[in-house]
Write a structure and sequence with these properties.
19% of the residues are buried. The chain contains two helices and nine strands; from the N terminus they run βββαββββββα. Helices cover 8% and strands 39% of the residues. Strands 1, 2, 3, 4 and 9 form a five-stranded antiparallel sheet that branches. A four-stranded antiparallel sheet has the order 5-8-7-6, with no helix packed on it. With 159 residues, the chain is mostly beta strands. The structure holds zinc ion. Residues 148, 150, 152, 157, 159 line the site of zinc ion.
Length: 159
Amino acid sequence: MQIAPRCVAYFHYTLTNDAGEVLDSSEGREPLAYLHGAGNIIPGLERAMEGHEAGDAFSVDVEPEDGYGPRVPALVQQVPRNQFPEMDLEPGMRFSTESNRGPMTVVITEVAEDLVTVDGNHPLAGERLHFAIEVAEVREATTEEVLHGHVHGADGHDH
Ligand code: ZN
């Protein structure tokens, strides 16, 4: 069966950046499951999955606009260090914070004596993404899955 809206697809992937570095991979894990047509995965990848079936292997390049969006310089900010609770601050630490666009996750990119630089961009924002995909299984979604907009079961969401 071919991947189409109201299908659940299971796939293995290896994600690399322009430099060829592996950013993420499902190797050694269960394949990733998603509900096709529900925006569960980035648009560029979802479009490329359409029409494929179990056993298909293919590569797809995804531009930032079809991935995690462009990097927004305004999301990089310097915050006085005393705004953070008393703790050892290190680059790479993540915090949830309130912004005027709602809750967001920021990562610390630099720690100076009085100022901490935080970046609210998605880690993969602005990156051109290269996926190597192997479709493991395609099945019809259940009515409940379609209504909820996500996959249920062992690899998916549980209630
Ligand atoms: Zn659900």
